Amino acid sequence: MPCVRDIGLWSERLQQAYADMGVLDAAKSDLEALMRSDEEIAEKLDADRFAAEEEARAAEVAEVITAGADS
């Protein structure tokens, strides 16, 4: 796959534009570390949501049990 340098798009002006936009810094980032971080965040969000759903379900079951005992 050709890169910008291969097709003549690597002038000083374009390099400065890439630097101003943060493209050159983004190229230095560790993609695997970013992906791991995203996965960890997603797993925590899923766990928090699951815990909240379980808590709501337990409260619902307790309410039904109490209503049944009062009958």
Describe the structure.
This protein is an all-alpha fold and 71 residues long. Helix content is 77%, strand content 0%. The mean pLDDT is 90.
Brief rundown of the structure:
The protein has about 70 residues and is mainly α. The protein has helices spanning about 10-20, 25, 30-70.
Give the topology:
Layout lengths: L11 H10 L1 H5 L3 H40 L1
Q: Key features?
A:
71 residues, mainly alpha, 77% helix
Distance between the first and last residues' Cα: 74 Å
Structural class: mainly alpha
User: What is the CA-based Rg, rounded?
Assistant: 27 Å
Main sheet characteristics: none
Number of helices: 3
Low-confidence stretches: none
- Sum up the overall morphology in one term: rod-shaped
Residue-averaged pLDDT, rounded?
90
| Percentage of residues in strands | under 5%
